Amino acid sequence: MTHKCKRCNEEKALEAFSLNNRGNPRGKCKACVNEYSKQFRTDKQKSRLSYRVTQSVYKSCPVYFKVCAISGKLFTSKRPHAKYSKEVTKEVSKLFNLKYQHIRQNTKALLFQCKHCGVSFLSEHKDKRKKFCSYRCSKKYYAKDRKVKTRQGHRRMNPLTVLERDNWTCYICGCFTPKEFRGTLSDNAPEVDHIIPLSKGGEHALSNVRCCCRKCNNRKSNTLLTPVSIIVAGGG
């Protein structure tokens, strides 16, 4: 059995062709495909070389001749404000590394106890602010602390009950917060705000929650408001 190649127009045996998914011979023979792929690679390499040459021509960087401020020798640099040569900068960096190594060796490590897991650990560089042995322990500790604060009082609270209780009015500025604007980015969108923030030790209870507009809630953040500031904001 023979098959005709579409590129060279020659009748060749079926072994000279690669088969497709259905088991039929392809239109071009293997020799023509290899020849075409080699030609394509050479053309691609030529185009890449020409692109690199044009880029090197257009992106040529100027070279500046400078005198080193320490050694007094002449050196070249691509930066116009360079003051020191490469040899001098390497020596200076080595001196700094030796200095800091000496400081690290002389500093005594302090013994601390982790607040989360209770494991004792050493803190280098006399860092007295260390409270946890790792970042993972600190993350777990603060997450647990936040869960304890939010679980105080009512575990579950429907925000609509709070908004309806306060008649959809902001307790800071006194503006009306329509129900249709809930979940939007408008300034008078109704939101639920903690009077005493959770970060300050406040409870997640109905007595500590009020209706607030989005603008006042963002401005208040986690600060404690005095009754005077609420009256001034509301204009009362």
Task: Write a structural description.
- This protein has about 240 residues and is α+β, with helices and mostly antiparallel strands.
- Helix content is about 35%, strand content about 15%.
- The chain is built from six helices and ten strands; from the N terminus they run ββββαββαββααββαα.
- β3 and β4 (about 25-30) form a beta hairpin.
- It starts with a strand and ends with a helix.
Cα end-to-end separation: 100 Å
Helix content: 25-40%
So what's the CATH class of the largest domain? Mainly Alpha
Strands across the major sheet, in which order?
1-2
Mean pLDDT: 79
In terms of topology, how is this protein built?
Elements: E1 2-4, E2 11-13, E3 17-19, E4 25-29, H1 30-58, E5 64-67, E6 74-77, H2 86-106, E7 110-113, E8 120-123, H3 135-150, H4 159-165, E9 190-194, E10 209-213, H5 214-220, H6 227-234
In short:
The chain has 6 helices and 10 strands. It is of the alpha+beta class. The protein has 3 domains: 2-57, no CATH class; 110-147, no CATH class; 159-234, DNA Binding (I), subunit A (Orthogonal Bundle), CATH 1.10.30.
Notable traits:
alpha+beta, DNA Binding (I), subunit A, extended, disordered C terminus
